[in-house]
Please model this.
Amino acid sequence: MEAEDLQEELTCSICLDYFEDPVSIECGHNFCRGCLHRSWAPGGGPFPCPECRQPSAPAALRPNWALARLSEKTRRRRQGPVPPGLCGRHWEPLRLFCEDDQRPVCLVCRESQEHQAHAMAPIDEAFESYRKDHFGIHVDEWRRLIRVLLHRFKQEEKLLKTQCSLMAKMKKAMHLQDMEVKNATEWKEKMKNQRVRFSTEFAKLHRFLAEEEQRFLQRLSKEEEETKKKRNENTLRLNRMISSLKKLIIEVGEKSQSSTLELLQNPKDVLTRSENQDVNYSLEVLKVKTVCQIPMMKEMLKRFQVTINLAEDTAHPKLVFSQEGRYVKNGASASSWPLFSTAWSYLAGWRNPQKTSQFVERFQHLPCVLGKNVFTSGKHYWEVENRDSLEIAVGVCREDIMGIVDSSKMSPHVGIWAISWSSAGYRPLTSFPVSPTKQEPALHRVGVFLDHGAGDISFYSAVDGVHLHTFSCSFISRLRPFFWLSPLASLVIPPVTGGK
Model:
């Protein structure tokens, strides 16, 4: 009784708990300083005492140090283990059951602000009502004890099954995590090998392929970043899943070891959360989606493809044109084949350029023609098709070579960088004799690539991108496309399908 009286003297009548920073007011009553501040009306004027209603001024508050020390000592003595059946906050018997919080409380708790608006019932009635509503147990003491024990056994059995189920789920999740780590390691190795393969293949090509290499590596890096992000998300998801399972396992273990009173406090919550916890995770094998497919040479050359227009006013009189100037044929001299030339021009709609154009300068001795294009910088590519398998020559030249009289002199020495080809093979036009190189299958279409900045003119098979020959034509500021046709030979400049 003395302990209860002491506790009553050390309890604030507002919060019903031990004094916290107690102060005395003019009427002599003591309260927590924080409780008084919360009960004051706005304005800061005199306030009534919560117990006797006598007015008191805020300035009259006086700290009660003795009461504070006594309250602190009593609170410390009660910080040890709470005896069974007592309130852990007030050390009072648990006589009531809070319907709102679903837990036992003492009489002091009922008067506190936390529970003032809650519905209360005597703990014996609440316990009996809970048993009748959920388990149908009658009031007979012996039957009550047996059924309580039976119920506890069933609950422990369910908790054990739940614990086993959670352990199996965690084992599965950890296995998935190991597979994810192994999968990531293999993926990194694949990514490394793929990067080496890219670098090796790109090293085999010419200088401009360095730009293509960077584009492919950037695409691969983007895929790598996206895959890393997705892998990190999967790892985070598995970690969260494992952490949740660990918490549930610990909670189920603690629940199974708790007392009967604690076991009956909302027992279905942990079981429901355990049943709802699943390990739905679909393991996705990481793959490298960016394939190592280096574009064929002809495809890369077409990026620089330009439209070539023939300058008919530079053509030799034997050359005739059709198809809007893209098709040209060496018709030989007018005295040799007058009837053939006239019939061909009539049936095919060809026109002889010297009859319709004003010419300033043209080829008078060799069956040649220039392109209208004038190249002073950049990279340019065009294709030429041999229609008759007779010998023709294509390339680039200076603008001042139209007075040349001997086809054997066509070479870089005079300002012509070209190759000639026919069914017999191809050969670069140089100042010294070169035997034709046989091409299998026979060379049908040739691609001309001019890198003006590097001073190179290269020739490729337009069918498969095979490199044929490269000239160096440095220090030439203006270059034009060059065409030469042997007797009766013809060529066509295919339309541009891509590139510039």
